[in-house]
Amino acid sequence: MNIEDIKKLREATGAGMMDAKSALEEAKGNYDEAVKVLRKKGLAKAAKKADRTAAVGVIESYVHGGKIGVLVEVNCETDFVARTEDFKNFTRDVAMHIAAANPSYLNAEEIPEDELNKEKDAIKEEVAASGKPAEHAEKIIEGKLTKWYEEVCLMNQPFVKDPNQTIEQLRQALVGKLGENIVVRRFTRMEVGGLG
Question: Among 25, 19, 56, 66, which Cα is nearest to 185's?
Answer without folding.
Answer: 56
